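Hi support team,

I've been running sequence recovery on a batch of backbones for a student project. Most finish fine, but this one hangs at about 90% for roughly twenty minutes before it completes. I'm not sure whether the input is malformed or the queue is just slow. I've pasted the structure tokens below so you can try to reproduce it. Let me know if you need the job ID as well.

Thanks,
M.K.
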């Protein structure tokens, strides 16, 4: 069943991890270095088209969008300290077009669309989660207000669809349909994420790791899959190739979310911009915690009691909860989850038969997700 047509399809079985690069290719830079160079190249390629698209918004929405993308400060002046993120999604669109033999320019409408969708989703996520900071600056809703931030997100949503619909060639309608399905999947994933907050930690109504994995595929994987698929779609690839790249992105999304969950508990605040044990302090139902609660033994029981307690998880209590998650196997299970889905993503990329140079770039980008400190 095609990944390009079913947003909620189950992920495919995994295979052993095998890099895409040819054996014996010793002259290439390390994957992390290659990934950083690939991301920088794709950002440079996409930036003019992204600036042009944002310039079509009304001035107020454009100012908020430029702030969200890290280009401007809240008053509209250039912000050399701002960060628009690494640009993983736009890079996937560009690399996938190149992988099927098309030019990077062919993928620019797709790269712009997925970057705008990602930005709008962050604006709305920060409001729903009450997160005051994004990339070490005040979140848009804190800088401009909740109402304006909602409107800016809506404007970016509409602009993404418009930008893709205006792509040249006869594949634009199929690309827009794919993006529309992805938007529905994003909403479903966010709805599940919010709903999990109201569910108990244990018992028959508790969300297990399977439910969490499905949520992660919708919330994170669907847009990564869409990015990869749209680049191939606009590049004229056959449906089977588009579907394989979409599935690769979905697996990358689950791996990406698993690593995020590890960083949310054990990440270095200097690198993540978040307090240590931050997800535990907020009692977020993340993969490491749910995996730990799925086991048995004294660590699992103590963890469940601690999470059910009305006492705030701060300081020593948060540190103890993190230790219990680790002791109950949640940390190891999450690492396995990330590695498993990276293996599956690489299998899908091999099935797409990409161009060798693009294959190495995609492989480096995929591998960097596990070791990232972004």
């Amino acid at each position: 069943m095609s990944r390009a047509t079913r947003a909620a399809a189950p992920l495919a079985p995994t295979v052993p991890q095998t890099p895409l690069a040819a054996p014996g290719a010793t002259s290439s830079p390390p994957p992390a270095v290659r990934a950083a160079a690939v991301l920088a190249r794709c950002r440079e390629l996409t930036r003019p088209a992204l600036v042009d698209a944002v310039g079509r918004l009304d001035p107020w929405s454009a100012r908020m969008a430029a702030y969200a993308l890290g280009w401007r400060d809240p008053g509209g002046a250039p912000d050399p300290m701002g960060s628009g993120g690494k640009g993983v999604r736009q890079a996937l669109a560009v690399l996938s077009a190149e992988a099927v033999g098309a030019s990077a320019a062919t993928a620019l409408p797709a790269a712009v669309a997925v970057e705008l969708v990602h930005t709008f989703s962050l604006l709305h996520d920060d409001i729903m989660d009450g997160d005051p900071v994004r990339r070490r600056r005040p979140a848009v809703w804190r800088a401009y207000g909740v109402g304006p931030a909602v409107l800016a997100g809506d404007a970016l949503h509409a602009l993404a669809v418009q930008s893709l619909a205006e792509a040249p060639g006869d594949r634009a309608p199929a690309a827009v349909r794919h993006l529309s399905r992805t938007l529905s999947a994003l909403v479903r994933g966010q709805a599940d994420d919010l709903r999990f907050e109201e569910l108990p930690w244990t018992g028959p109504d508790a969300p297990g790791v399977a439910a969490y994995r499905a949520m992660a595929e919708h919330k994170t994987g669907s847009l990564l899959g869409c990015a990869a698929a749209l680049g191939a779609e606009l590049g004229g690839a056959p449906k089977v190739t588009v579907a394989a790249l979409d599935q690769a992105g979905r697996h990358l999304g689950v791996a990406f979310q698993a690593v995020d969950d590890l960083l949310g508990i054990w990440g270095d605040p200097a690198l993540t911009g978040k307090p240590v044990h931050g997800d535990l302090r907020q009692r977020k139902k993340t993969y490491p915690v749910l995996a730990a609660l799925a086991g048995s033994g004294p660590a699992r029981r103590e963890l469940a009691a601690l999470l059910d307690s009305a006492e705030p998880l701060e300081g020593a209590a948060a540190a103890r909860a993190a230790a219990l998650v680790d002791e109950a196997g949640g940390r190891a299970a999450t690492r396995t989850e990330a590695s498993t889905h990276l293996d599956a993503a690489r299998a899908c990329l091999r099935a797409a038969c990409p161009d060798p140079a693009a294959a190495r770039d995609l492989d480096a980008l995929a591998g960097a997700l596990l070791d990232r400190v972004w």
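--
Follow-up from support: It reproduced on our side and the slowdown came from queue contention, not your input. Residues 1-26 have pLDDT under 50 and may be disordered. No action needed from you.
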